[in-house]
UniProtKB/TrEMBL annotation, chain A:
Residues 45-233 form the Dihydroorotase catalytic domain. Binds 2 Zn(2+) ions per subunit. Catalyzes the reversible cyclization of carbamoyl aspartate to dihydroorotate. Its EC number is 3.5.2.3. Belongs to the metallo-dependent hydrolases superfamily. DHOase family. Class I DHOase subfamily. It catalyses: (S)-dihydroorotate + H2O = N-carbamoyl-L-aspartate + H(+). The keyword Mitochondrion does not apply. This is Dihydroorotase. The lineage of its organism: Bacteria, Bacillati, Actinomycetota, Actinomycetes, Propionibacteriales. InterPro entries: DHOase, DHOase/Allantoinase_Hydrolase, DHOase_cat, Dihydroorotase_CS, Metal-dep_hydrolase_composite, Metal_Hydrolase. PROSITE patterns: DIHYDROOROTASE_2 (PS00483). Pfam families: DHOase (PF12890). The active site is at D300. It comes from Ammonicoccus fulvus.
TrEMBL record, chain B:
This is Aspartate carbamoyltransferase. Belongs to the aspartate/ornithine carbamoyltransferase superfamily. ATCase family. Heterododecamer (2C3:3R2) of six catalytic PyrB chains organized as two trimers (C3), and six regulatory PyrI chains organized as three dimers (R2). Keywords: Pyrimidine biosynthesis, Transferase. L-aspartate binds at K82, R173, R227. One of its GO terms (molecular function) is aspartate carbamoyltransferase activity. The gene is pyrB.
Amino acid sequence: MTELLITGARLIGGDAGDLLIRDGVFVDPASAGSDVERIDADGLIALPGLVDTHCHLREPGREDAETIESGTRAAARGGYTAVLAMANVNPVTDTAEAVEHMKAVAAETASAAVHPVGAVTKGLAGEELAELGLMARAGVRLFSDDGKCVHDSLVMRRALEYVRAFDGVIAQHAQDPRLAGAGACCHEGEISGRLGLGGWPAVAESVIVARDVQLAEMTGSRYHVCHVSTAESIDVIRWAKARGINVTAEVTPHHLLLTTSAVEGYDPTFKVNPPLRPDEHVEALREALADGTIECVGTDHAPHAAHDKDHAFSDAAFGMLGLEASLAVVMDTMVAEGRLDWAGVAERMAYAPARIAGLTDQGRPLEVGEPANLVLVDPERRRTVDRAASLSKSRNNPYHGRDLPDPVRLTLWAGRTTFRDL
Amino acid sequence: MKHLLSAADLSRSEIDSILDLAEEMADVQRRPIKKLPTLRGRTVVNLFFEDSTRTRSSFEIAGKWLSADVINVSAKGSSVSKGESLRDTVQVIDAMGVDGMVIRHSASGAPAQAAGWIRGSVVNAGDGTHEHPTQALLDALSMRRHFRSLRGGFDEDWSGKTVAITGDLTHSRVVRSNVLLLRTLGAKVVLVAPPTLLPSGVTTWPAEVSTDFDAVLGEVDVAMMLRVQRERMSGGYFPTPREYTIGYGLTTDRLAKLRPDAAILHPGPVNRGLEMAADAADAGASRILDQVAAGVAVRMSVLYHVLGGADDKETNA
């Protein structure tokens, strides 16, 4: 019988307390055996294991950039115990067999629970529905063509209608492909105009969100907006929620911290989709995450091999790493600013993401009888981020050289230590 | 000066120095034997990821007349499609020991990125829709020559001069470099285009903006017309070529409304009948061929400033 006793950790909504983990479950600390392994967590905060609604693990297909093994090690380093892995791998996760394959690899190699996201359309082509029902039977609840927008209104309507049968969620990468066309690689504004980079206007996101929430209302379905990046989208989401439409949304850590000015030097590390936005959008995103208009943080962790980034800005791959620094960024942009307390962090980074993704054994309170998914957080420790130190296989780290919190001291996934630094 | 990446990098004195030396270089152009030993032993690679006969030839001639060893490398198409990254491409060439690269690329910022990856010097020969600094320099040389040719001459005070730049501003690298260079010189710039062809944030540029060409026509000392790319004509930027010409072309009627001492510039090649009438291109005030000739002299001067003599190079290293 394996036992771990964590003593003196600060618990959400209460004082310091002890946590006893036995066989992957929290049990009564008073029942600890004499030979129990002890961890002194004095000064540390105990949070439920974090859940990421949105990451890219690149396996199968681009194992040179990331694997399920390396990606979930990075996740554990960031305090995550569950991740939703987007479908834009090769082959695309658009069949039950592809789902089962990813789960089988994860069962062998992962350091966090891996929940495959199913594609909405075959091959992410935006034309024909993928086998949503068969993927649902394989356990999928979240469906997304992420990386591409389901831009055909009728296809979107059918997808929303269809997943209602099994309480699925359609997660949209909201990007009108005409307004933000092939050359769009930078927020459309003063900087894109001056640097001569293809502009991605803010409304290219909000017009799709506006259309989709109306379709969600018509169909009565669950709709989730991936990586919200603009103030206009937030306005639409607020309007939709006020009408009772079943819409949820996520924001990435990089959109909470970084602004368009990061692309001034044409460094492709800062090329991401949707693009980094100016201050006023960043402020709107922080406000919306604080007031719950945006329910959760999704990392959009997008590892890329160096040879996919070492191009001219407009030719380089979109995306940046996110799993390891996500909590750190939320601490600096939300907690330190007084916008979220630690209970709010648990809600936005564990409880809400698990609810949205339909996970029943994640995003649970640290209570007796619950699965032992836990992260111990040091609220004081900081570091200068070094991209070479990443556990990801890739190095496209937008925080390299930046002073950030270094909070994660221990991550437990179902009682198993997946990251430890104490 | 290690690199020339943006017109914004140049101070007033550097611009004057480049233009003054260009005038000396222009004298070489008129000699029967067009050769200076200035860059003997230096190797310059013209690395063109995008076709440009005019600019590439101009840099090639400039380098050869300065006795540099000039190698043209055509890397047409994006480096992505060839499977090699931009970084690999420029580092491989740099590793061969070349002294400078003249880079033309369809992507904005590519020369600036390259400059961060290699040891040698980089001259931006046009990057995407960003900048084309040597074009702005040769435009400035043509303008200066024009002003000097007028009765009363030119006291080098650009603050009284107004340059209208008209056409597809959004996709023009020429306009971005010209605005920056002319700001440093002190001239007033008026940008004219239909709203669909005005760049995002153009109101923050150091220039006035107008959508009414006729309203500014009579005030300008220089009417610089920009080429309208053929693909823009079907891109929804304006309804028809006919409507564009009526609104923004330098037509025969508008030619008559220009001040008699105003110069006409165009980076070429000209779409006759679209952005300017044939008689405007051929008018006495047209400096278009002078721009082409000035291109070689300016690029000789730029290569000299960037690659320098032996002593300069050592101090730059």
